[in-house]
Design a protein that fits this description.
With 245 residues, this protein is mainly β. It has a domain at 163-245. It is built from no helices and 18 strands. The strands form four sheets. Strands 1-2-3-4-5-6 form a six-stranded antiparallel sheet, with no helix packed on it. A six-stranded antiparallel sheet has the order 11-12-13-14-15-16, with no helix packed on it. A four-stranded antiparallel sheet has the order 7-8-9-10, with no helix packed on it. Strand 17 and strand 18 (243-244) form a beta hairpin. It is globular. The relative contact order is 0.09.
Length: 245
């Protein structure tokens, strides 16, 4: 039988702080926790070292309906395998009841860097996790999970990783994405069940701008010309008709 010697060589812990600035270490009162652990395991027979990287994020303050839900997200990376485990709890009779468990396979062991935000303006906070990086870091690719009040759980938005730098657009009450290359494209998206659907876009390249509406996967051009605003290729547009930053 193999004997494993496990040594925890690094632990990074960030806990929420109370009003005095001290880290809140009470198990029952922790509202938001991020923890990263690196574990090295040595096999006595072949002396090979296997590293396991584990990230844990826990939030019971801001996720979904504030104070009524708790989420625990754990990412485990070993060799080329990375899995993200998501557990959702609901407060019932002053206790946390597990109401959802979900597994997501990732192609990369990049940090999950969870972010909580209301992406569909329903008053219930959703979340994203870091999924991949493109364009030398300019395109932050994430998996989006939307909280469904009807189903009382989080729904993975299957194609959200096709749209980098996701953002809630207050101007149009939609989701938009910013794709950066030699120029940039702002894509305007609506939620359709468990997917994002494009309905408009603005392309910007070398001072030229063009906008489109999208119907049935067909792009219909609305405007093309020189842009009179910022010349920054990272400009993000908040509207397509008229074109506005």
């Amino acid at each position: 039988m193999k004997n494993l010697l496990t040594l925890i060589v690094f632990i990074l812990f960030i806990g929420c702080k109370d009003k005095t600035g001290k880290t809140n270490e009470s198990k029952d009162s922790k509202d938001s926790i991020y923890k990263e652990t690196v574990i090295k395991s040595a096999d006595d027979e072949d002396d090979e070292t296997v590293e396991e990287f584990k990230e844990t994020f826990i939030d019971s303050l801001t996720i979904a309906a504030k104070g009524k839900y708790k989420i625990e997200i754990t990412q485990n990376s070993t060799d080329t395998i990375t899995k993200v485990s998501i557990a959702l709890f609901q407060k019932q009779n002053q206790r946390w009841k597990n109401i959802q468990n979900y597994i997501l396979n990732k192609e990369s062991d990049i940090p999950m860097l969870p972010e909580i935000e209301d992406f569909n303006n329903d008053g219930l906070n959703d979340f994203t996790i870091h999924y991949a990086v493109a364009a030398r870091g300019s395109n932050d690719i994430r998996k989006l999970f939307i909280f469904s009040k009807k189903e009382n759980k989080f729904i993975e938005i299957k194609n959200s990783d096709n749209y980098p730098n996701l953002n809630y657009n207050k101007n149009l009450n939609c989701i938009d994405a910013l794709s950066v290359y030699g120029g940039s494209t702002t894509t305007f998206l609506k939620l359709t069940k468990d997917s994002l659907t494009e309905f408009a876009k603005v392309n910007f390249m070398d001072g030229d701008v063009e906008s489109f509406i999208i119907r049935g996967n067909k792009e219909i051009k609305l405007y093309s010309g020189k842009y009179q605003g910022s010349n920054d290729y990272l400009v993000r547009f908040s509207n397509y008709n008229p074109i506005e930053e």
